[in-house]
Every structure is written in structure tokens, then in C-alpha cells.
From TrEMBL:
This is S-layer protein. Residues 1-18 form the signal peptide. The lineage of its organism: Bacteria, Thermotogati, Deinococcota, Deinococci, Deinococcales. Pfam families: DUF4384 (PF14326), PEGA (PF08308). Residues 54-132 form the DUF4384 domain. GO terms for molecular function: carbohydrate binding. Residues 194-261, 274-337 form the PEGA domain. Keywords: Signal.
Length: 341
């Protein structure tokens, strides 16, 4: 959605909004499973299972709900990596959502609407719910008195994830949770387009078409430019599947991928760095190296790129004692960690 354009009273605001839920883990994820939950939807797909497309100029609304009273914050990651803060804003300052209710932005009685503006391509919306109100002063700010929407300091999805991780780090892990959604923005007069369905036999697969990440598998992606393109399907713990497919205007191309278990070998060291494979039976454990969070244990494995020398490794997991140790890295290798309760 690039930027939001405001025309007061009964006139318009321009923005793009979320679409189907694919994976909350792609921006920021709580390693625990709190009893707090949040969801984000768009008006063209209330189920969160499709991938609706919006053309530039279309009106759109975002809805969010939580199972407990919570403060909900919405961010949009644009195709070019810039980030917009959708909520709270100076038009809808109240971001408090009552338990088991759905809040729509804009609400029916609001004196503004959202209109899709661009840029063209795949976007992502993050909904972050917290039982306590968060201080976002270090993440976003209103540049002047006329700004209706705050400017986000982060210039990429990774930057947003890092900034938000710092904000939620002091909170109890059962007091916040996140959800993400995807949507596609197409030109008002698009070129001939077709659709692509990618089916897989595993969860958490990712589809990359012509170098651009589309989202998860087992989803139909519409409004794709016709032509022949390389496609890559990735899944944690499996070798990437690559092929070339043809998108035909007015039809759906089907691609079914059957993964066989085979972990990709770790890459050779580059510029004095080494690959250290961290193994732990505690999936979802958060890993910190020298004070910085570097990832989460998935399928028992997390590959780290470390420079030569001593590094402090800390592993944090709900229900386990925090593991801390210092390792001297001189070559590629692996470390096995089993936190105790």
C-alpha cells in the first residue's frame, strides 16, 4: 500500500489491506502457545483461506478480532520492503478490541474509507495483539501535525520484526500473539492474467514465482501475469523443488509437489564465517547469539552463520530453564542443546 492518502470528512483515504492468512511466522511469532489469539481478514475473504486480489482504486476494509480484551496493532509490509502503520492512527486512535468481537477498519460510521493505492504486487499485514498497551515510540512516529498515519522507522520486514521483538521482549509470553495475512494489488488495467495452484504434502511450504515470494502452498494465486516462469517450492527440512511453469491467461495452472525428506547440506564458510548447526528437541525455542535473537528452533534444527571466535549462545523456551553457554567457533560444526525443565 505504499502510503495512505487522506481526504477528510465524507471523502477518501488510500491504503491497501490484508488478505488471506498463510503464516504468522513470517514476521514475528510467539514461541509459546498463549491462550490469547488474534486474526486479521479483508472484506473479500472473511475465511482467511483464499488469496483475493484488489485493483488500484478498489475500496477495502480490514477486520480484526481477539478471544480476549486486547490492544491490536496493524502494520503493512509493502512489496518494496517499506512498512506502513495502519492502526492506531489519528483517524482511528482506539485500537482496543473487546473479547470475541470483530472490529472493522474503517467502521461503518467512520467518515473515511480505505482505497487500494499500490504499489503493485504481494503485500503482507501483521496483526499484533497485546493484553497491555504497547509503546511504539521507537518504531513509528507522526512526522508533523498534519500526518494522519505514523511513519514506521523500519525499512524492511526484518527490521520490523527486530523492532517489534524488542517491544514485546519484556512482556510475559502469554500476554501477546500475532497473525499475518497476504493480499495482492493489481493494476486497474492489468495485462492478461492467469492463476496458479501449488499443492504439497507438507505444512509450512513456501512458493516463490520468478524470484518473488507468493506465500504458502495449497493456495490458488490469481491475477498472475501470463508467461513462462521459474518456480521454487521450499519447506523446512526438505530439499527445494524447482521447475518451470506456464501461466496462461484466463486459466489455472496446477502444480503438485511431493517432498521427500532430505535436509540441504550446510553451505561452505564465506569470508571467515562458519556454519554451526544448532540441534535441540525443543521446537519453538528462541535462540540468541551474543545478545541478539537469531531465530527459532524448527524441526529440531537451526543453522547459524558465525564468525571465528567465542560466541555466547542462549536458548529460551517456555517451561524450560534458560540455557547459556559460550562456544569457540573455529570451523563448521554442530552443537546439541537439551534444555532442562
Amino acid at each position: 500500500m505504499k502510503k495512505l492518502f487522506l481526504i477528510p470528512a465524507a471523502m477518501l483515504i488510500s491504503t491497501a489491506a490484508a488478505a488471506p492468512k498463510i503464516s504468522a511466522q513470517s514476521i514475528i511469532v510467539n514461541p509459546t502457545q498463549p491462550d490469547l489469539s488474534v486474526s486479521v481478514r479483508v472484506d473479500k475473504d472473511t475465511s482467511g483461506n483464499q488469496n483475493p486480489a484488489y485493483r488500484v482504486g478498489d475500496k477495502i476494509s480490514i477486520s480484526t478480532s481477539a478471544n480476549r480484551d486486547a490492544y491490536v496493532y496493524l502494520f503493512n509490509v509493502n512489496p518494496d520492503g517499506t512498512v506502513d502503520q495502519i492502526l492506531p492512527n489519528r483517524l482511528s486512535e482506539n485500537n482496543f478490541v473487546k473479547a470475541n468481537t470483530t472490529k472493522v477498519f474503517p467502521a461503518p460510521d467512520d467518515k473515511f474509507t480505505y482505497t487500494v493505492a499500490g504499489p503493485i504486487g504481494q503485500n503482507k499485514v501483521l496483526a499484533l495483539a497485546s493484553l497491555t498497551e504497547l509503546d511504539l515510540d521507537d518504531i513509528s512516529s507522526f512526522k508533523n501535525a498534519q500526518d494522519q498515519f505514523a511513519t514506521v522507522n523500519a525499512k524492511s520486514q526484518a527490521g520490523l520484526a527486530q523492532a517489534l521483538s524488542i517491544v514485546v521482549n519484556p512482556l510475559p509470553q502469554n500476554s501477546w500473539v500475532s497473525d499475518t495475512a497476504f493480499y495482492t494489488v493489481a493494476a486497474r488495467n492489468p495485462v492478461s492474467t492467469g492463476s496458479l495452484f501449488v499443492g504439497t504434502n507438507v505444512n509450512n511450504a513456501t512458493v516463490i514465482l520468478n524470484g518473488q515470494r507468493l506465500g504458502g502452498a495449497n493456495v490458488t494465486y490469481s491475477n498472475l501475469r501470463a508467461g513462462t516462469f521459474p518456480v521454487r517450492v521450499q519447506a523446512p527440512g526438505y530439499r527445494d523443488y524447482t521447475t518451470t511453469i506456464a501461466i496462461r491467461a484466463g486459466s489455472t495452472t496446477n502444480l503438485n509437489v511431493e517432498f521427500a525428506q532430505a535436509v540441504t547440506p550446510a553451505p561452505a564458510p564465506v569470508q571467515g564465517q562458519y556454519t554451526v548447526t544448532l540441534r535441540s528437541p525443543v521446537n519453538g525455542a528462541r535462540v540468541f547469539v551474543d545478545g541478539d535473537e537469531v531465530g527459532v528452533i524448527r524441526n529440531g534444527v537451526l543453522n547459524l552463520r558465525l564468525s571465528r571466535g567465542a560466541h555466547e549462545i542462549v536458548v529460551v523456551a517456555s517451561g524450560y530453564r534458560t540455557f547459556t553457554n559460550t562456544y569457540n567457533v573455529t570451523q563448521n560444526g554442530q552443537i546439541t542443546i537439551t534444555p532442562t525443565r
